[in-house]
Design brief:
Arc Repressor Mutant, subunit A, 4-stranded antiparallel sheet, elongated, WH-like_DNA-bd_sf, DEP_dom, Rho_GTPase_activation_prot
Length: 514
């Protein structure tokens, strides 16, 4: 609003005009104002060449109503501006609107809910624990530095999250991401976050069919069947299977008018009055295509599910009709694409006051929606994955070991306490951690690729760290000795060369003499 007014006041030529034998200084004709403003809007990046002369006249009517301009007699407040030779001028007072004030405290960080304090009566027995599987090499590396008793540790127990907690996480992280994408210091400039329904976000993210369309829990809020049939007929033209082909000329125009009349009767636009400023702020990002896509993805996720579903079906129909070369023309003077924008932009986006740049802004946004509806009206996968990972992290039991890498600058949380080695081993047995340790021990014992010396060393380390697990596998020394059969000591071979001396004759000695 302010940008267009400033450009118009700076670019509109002012000169002397005569009317009924009287001269008026620094004024302009209505037709000259239409020419000037139409050219300015066409060259502006937020509007572009799609702006028509008729839309420019409607904007000048808004200018006259809001005292941006006045006639030469100082009259204003009505929307009776016409594209003719009447004379107008700029008022001496500034018509600019004040900008929303930003908070002075700097950037606002949306806080996440705190579930560190366990509620009374909350049970910790059913918190899922994922067993860690290690092979022998990983286990050996982990224990190669300090072999001995298990060090003291801290068990961090998490309170079980309720559905309400998860919904609040979705709301907090979604709004935080939206604020970052829009580049705002605070969402208070464009949105009252207290009015954002966290249940709507979760329903829009998970209650979808194979085509990505929202499925409603309350069936009474569905579109009437006859409207759905009419929209399906035009969206799939001319290959609609559930309706007979038209038997008269102009059938598709009558169906289209029926749909336009239905959506034109809605009391509130599909993007709602509450989110008007959010969607208008996205228009500044249209030059950055990927940023605009993500901002609209997140913004549409905030809508009530029934609004989101109607928006998905309507924009999909509009896009299919616009890109269907076989579709018969719906108007003699306007292209099918422009007709789609003109017919439905107001039921998609408008402000509650019915003023300012509503029509032009809505046309710009709806055109972008039509060109990128498949991406914009899908659930943002990156946001969904990050939130799901955060929820899993909050539900996971954590074990923190005391050591040199422990951060001692922060006091320990109130939800954990230090336990002894015996208590830790008891917790390990209670959570079923002996199974992966037993599997690891079996892997060490049956591994034939390591030497006997290394195997004995690793088994000794394991026995020292987990004596109970080791005792179950090797209850007696004999069961352990099976792994290392003793080799039989062979006697050295007899020196056969001593037996193979040549035979020597018998020599008679004196002792044999008589």
């Amino acid at each position: 609003w302010n940008e267009i007014i400033e450009l118009f006041r700076a670019g509109m030529p002012l000169r002397k005009h005569r009317c009924r034998f009287k001269s008026y200084e620094r004024c302009f004709k209505a037709s000259e104002a239409v020419d000037c403003l139409h050219e300015l809007l066409g060259s502006n990046q937020n509007f572009g060449p799609e702006v028509t002369r008729n839309q420019t006249v409607k904007l000048l009517k808004k200018f006259l109503k809001n005292h941006v301009i006045e006639d030469i007699k100082g009259r204003w407040g009505k929307e009776d501006f016409q594209d003719d030779g009447h004379l107008y001028r700029f008022p001496p007072s500034s018509p600019l609107k004040s900008y929303p004030k930003k908070p002075s405290c700097g950037k606002e960080v949306i806080k996440f809910p705190d579930w560190n304090e366990p509620k009374a009566g909350t049970s910790q027995e059913h918190i899922p624990v994922k067993s860690v599987m290690m092979n022998s090499e990983m286990w050996y590396k982990r224990h190669s530095i300090a072999i001995g008793e298990v060090p003291a540790c801290k068990l961090v127990f998490r309170t079980e999250l309720t559905q309400r907690n998860i919904e609040e996480i979705w709301k907090s992280m979604t709004l935080s991401r939206l604020q970052k994408v829009l580049g705002l210091d605070s969402l208070d400039e464009v949105l009252d976050t207290k009015l954002v329904n966290s249940k709507h976000i979760v329903q829009n993210a998970y209650n979808v069919n194979k085509q990505g369309i929202v499925t409603l829990e309350d069936k009474s809020k569905e579109l009437p069947h006859w409207i759905l049939s009419a929209m399906k007929c035009l969206a799939n033209w001319p290959s609609c299977s559930d309706l007979k082909q038209p038997t008269y000329s102009g059938f598709e125009r009558d169906v289209f008018k029926t749909i336009v009349d239905y959506f034109g009767q809605t009391k509130e636009p599909l993007l709602t009055f509450h989110f008007f400023d959010v969607f208008v702020s996205v228009l500044g990002l249209l030059q950055k295509h990927s940023k605009a896509i993500e901002a609209l993805q997140i913004s549409c996720l905030l809508l009530p599910p029934e609004n989101r579903k109607r928006l998905q079906l309507l924009v999909r129909m509009m896009a299919r009709i616009s890109f269907n070369k076989d579709f018969p023309p719906l108007s003699e003077s306007v292209t099918t694409r422009n007709l789609m924008v003109q017919a439905f932009s107001r039921c998609i986006l408008c402000s509650k006051d019915e003023m300012d740049l509503d029509e032009l802004l809505a046309a710009k946004l709806v055109s972008f929606l039509m060109d990128n509806y498949q991406e914009i009206l899908s659930v943002p996968s990156a946001l969904k994955s990050s939130i799901e990972e955060h929820v899993v992290h909050l539900q996971r039991v954590q074990i923190k070991y005391a050591g040199p890498d422990t951060d001692v600058t922060f006091p320990p949380p109130s939800f954990c306490h230090q336990i002894s080695t015996d208590e830790f081993e008891s917790c390990q047995r209670a959570t079923g951690s002996q199974e992966p340790l037993a599997a690891l021990l079996e892997e060490i014992a049956m591994n034939k690729e390591i030497s006997v010396k290394d195997k004995k060393k690793k088994l000794k380390q394991f026995q020292k760290s987990y004596p109970e697990v080791y005792r179950v596998r090797f209850p007696t020394p004999e069961t352990e000795a099976v792994l290392f059969p003793e080799k039989s000591k062979q006697k050295p071979p007899i020196l056969m060369w001593a037996l193979k001396k040549p035979f020597q004759p018998f020599h008679r000695t004196r002792s044999f003499r008589m």
